[in-house]
Description:
Strand content: 15-25%
Strand order of the largest sheet: 1-4
Amino acid sequence: MRLNKINTIEDANKFLKEVFMPKFNRQFNEVKRIAPPEANAYTVGDFEIEWKDGNPTHHVAPVTFYKIEVDTTQRLVRMEDIYRDFDLMMSLID
């Protein structure tokens, strides 16, 4: 924030809306553009910085795509339910 001379909450909100979020969303659009049509999930590996003439030019990272199938007939157990039920917690550890 300091690099962008942001000193107030109003300036920070304006920066987020006008600069950061469009750039952030653009990165996700790039991933969506290269994704196979059947992929519905992905992970991004460790970023590396590409250099030219001693200056950073851009970031690169490996992207792995997945086709995830979700069984919606099963209900996920909420964390607070696990904390309150010792027997359930122990059964999940085994």
